[in-house]
Write a structure and sequence with these properties.
19 helices, S-adenosyl-L-methionine, alpha/beta, MeTrfase_RsmB-F_NOP2_cat, 464 residues, eight-stranded mixed β-sheet, Rossmann fold, 3 domains, rRNA (cytosine-C5-)-methyltransferase activity, five-stranded mixed β-sheet, Alpha-Beta Plaits, globular, 13% strand
């Protein structure tokens, strides 16, 4: 059962946009990485077929306690894989429905006029040779080291540092063992696609975090000042939480929530490895957190990255994500509006980031617009990162203040970010970036780091 549970957890993480397959598999703590990776990859490849089988056999309606992603894994192995060699009570459950599932599979083959299981897969489910390859982004964990020391370390390992990239086009040209400093984010290094650093000492020691560039934007744009109290509302697996801690310089308090015990355990391991202190993990649905609890009376920042369709993660798996149904989008958007409105009800809140790894307007601009209307003039949409090329869709006046990311335009995963600030009396013009983020941006977009800051940074822990 451990294999199927681990595979289902990875699929859930992909759906939420927590990371790519490799990151989630390696962070799963499952002992047989290749076996887990193969099962997840094949389940993803057959995902559209599995969804049709589950719907046709009404399995999820019959077995209401069976999680959808676990159902996919079980049905894949039952019909297309090794035939459920393990699985405990869930295996028994799946086998009870075997006849119906096999009948549905036969019906599907007749309907599509094919005889082999492989023939049920559409050509689009294979990765196109011309598909855009997203680079390997590496966030330097400034709680343990600094950019200069990490660059030096990679040089000693035979990598060739090309300096700070001037544009996204330069990132596309990366190959071999070349790497650059990202043109937008000051603590982000960029390597060619498919660069595998999971066994690298810097990764295993927590000195670097393998995190997509778009996923780094929420914490960067929230930019909490050191000493602040921050909520990470839907926190696992913890990359954004560790990024917040680095921005806070471990000064302050982070309250992180997630409903899944195993994900929280994995997150705790990740945060400890990254050297994060001053955080409290809670196995709790964020919607049940009481904003009036004195414990949260000093919370001035909230990072909200709720469950979404994951439609922006199109290049992270061996197949393209099937488009979610209108009903699923409506259900997701309803939840997202509810959780965003709840986040804005914390009395001391000053600044909030709402982000998703979705491409759909229903989960992004429409959610922000609806919640802003609900909260009247209490909060405003901030004009974030004006130099960022991709803006929000023109769904409502001011939506251009939001930003979007995509493989084609920004060479990242698909993402959406909006920043909301509490309105103060006399506010007329939306601010752009908080002071901390402006300073980071100047350092990241300007010249190479100066010598004096370099000396200060080198006092931190080094990797030899």
């Amino acid at each position: 059962m451990a294999l199927y549970s681990a595979a289902a957890a990875v699929l859930e993480g992909l759906e939420r946009g927590d990371g790519g397959i490799k990151n989630l598999v390696y962070n799963s703590r499952f002992p047989h990485i290749r076996q887990l990776y193969a099962l997840v990859s094949e389940t993803l490849r057959y995902s559209p077929v599995l969804e049709k089988l589950l719907a046709g056999a009404a399995l999820l309606q019959t077995e209401k306690k069976l999680p959808p992603q676990l159902a996919k894994v079980l049905v894949y192995d039952l019909l297309f894989g090794k035939g459920l060699k393990c699985g405990g009570r869930w295996k028994a459950l799946a086998r009870r429905h075997r006849a119906r599932l096999e009948a549905e599979l036969a019906r599907l083959k007749v309907q599509q006029k094919v005889s082999r299981n492989e023939d049920l897969l559409a050509p689009a489910q294979a990765v196109s040779p011309g598909a855009i390859q997203v680079p390997r982004y590496v966030r330097v964990n400034t709680l343990k080291t600094c950019v200069d020391d990490v660059i030096d370390f990679f040089k000693r390992q035979g990598y060739s540092y090309q300096g700070k990239a001037a544009s996204v086009e330069e990132l596309k040209a990366l190959s071999g063992k070349k790497f650059v400093l990202d043109p937008h984010l000051p603590e982000l290094l960029v390597f060619p696609p498919q660069t595998d650093l999971h066994d690298n000492l810097l990764y295993t020691s927590g000195h670097i975090i393998l995190q997509d560039k778009a996923s780094c934007l929420p914490a960067f744009l929230l930019a909490p000042a050191p000493g602040s109290y921050v909520i990470d509302a839907c926190a696992a697996p913890g990359n954004k939480t560790s990024h917040l801690a680095a921005i806070l310089k471990n000064k302050g308090q982070i309250f992180a929530f997630d409903v899944d015990t195993k994900r929280l355990a994995t997150m705790n391991t990740l945060l400890m490895r990254a050297g994060v202190t001053g955080f409290q993990l809670a196995q709790q649905d964020f919607l049940t957190v009481d904003p009036g609890d004195p414990k949260y009376s000093k919370v001035t920042y909230v990072l909200l990255d709720p469950s979404c369709s994951g439609s922006g993660m199109v290049n992270r798996g061996p197949r393209e994500e099937a488009a979610p149904s209108a009903e699923r989008l409506q259900a997701l958007a309803s939840f997202q509006r509810k959780v965003l409105s709840h986040a804005l009800s914390f009395p001391a809140l000053q600044r909030l980031v709402y982000s998703t790894c979705s491409l759909h307007q229903e989960e992004n601009e429409d959610v922000v617009c609806a919640v802003l209307q609900e909260h009247g003039s209490a909060f405003r949409l901030v004009n974030i990162f004006p130099s960022w090329p991709c803006r929000g869709l023109p769904a409502f006046p001011g939506a251009e203040n939001c930003l979007r990311a995509s493989p084609a335009d920004t060479l990242t995963q698909g993402f959406f970010v909006a920043v909301l600030e509490r309105c103060e009396e006399g506010d007329t013009v939306p601010s752009s970036l908080p002071v901390a983020a402006e300073e980071n941006l100047r350092n990241g977009l300007g010249a190479e780091p100066e010598a004096a800051p370099k000396k200060r940074k080198r006092k931190k822990q080094r990797v030899k």
